[in-house]
Known about the structure:
The complex is a heterodimer.
Chain A: E1 4-5, E2 10-14, E3 19-25, E4 32-38, E5 45-51, E6 56-59, E7 62-67, E8 72-77, E9 86-95, E10 101-105, E11 109-114
Parallel strand pairs in A: 2-11
Antiparallel strand pairs in A: 1-3, 3-8, 4-5, 4-9, 6-7, 7-8, 9-10, 9-11
Chain B: E1 4-7, E2 10-13, E3 19-25, E4 31-38, E5 42-51, E6 54-57, E7 65-70, E8 73-78, E9 87-94, E10 105-106, E11 110-114
Parallel strand pairs in B: 2-11
Antiparallel strand pairs in B: 1-3, 3-8, 4-5, 4-9, 5-6, 7-8, 9-10, 9-11
Amino acid sequence: DQQVKQNSPSLSVQEGRISILNCDYTNSMFDYFLWYKKYPAEGPTFLISISSIKDKNEDGRFTVFLNKSAKHLSLHIVPSQPGDSAVYFCAASGRLTGGGNKLTFGTGTQLKVEL
Amino acid sequence: DADVTQTPRNRITKTGKRIMLECSQTKGHDRMYWYRQDPGLGLRLIYYSFDVKDINKGEISDGYSVSRQAQAKFSLSLESAIPNQTALYFCATSKPGQGYYNEQFFGPGTRLTVL
Lengths: 115, 115
């Protein structure tokens, strides 16, 4: 049962244009959503997050939008740069019994930014 | 620079062998996690530990065990490796954050192949 889904395994965008990566979730108890970026032979690195009580969070070229009613979030990268080429994972944070939280990851989207 | 390291980075072994993957961190974080990544499945949580005396199963703990030798060290063992444990394994760390949200920092990964 995949609680966090990224339905596009890959996305190709031209340099300077907007990249939009999408993520859907099923569990309404998730309280934070995060995007991680992963380069080959490296571990995922945190990119940006959004609380479930917000609908938008912006950090430089990166903006995450959350639509709770649709259980959908998206990551916008504007303008896209060749160095943005990586796998992007959507993750959702849910509370654990006894404290702390657990991340549930999507399957990832490979973004390729072409010159 | 404070970091999360994993050893070995690559390992090829045979079915039935015992394997230990090690994770060390210099971030001073209390919480440590083990994930595996499989193509098309994203990252899935195997075990997590919130301090030296706390060990918890994740969503796919069968066939694995862990040891938290110190705050900075968290090892993952495969007692009798099988081919479907071939995957990319990541260690991650975190500290308690605002409310129940915490950013997780990942190591570079260990690529394990079981023949």
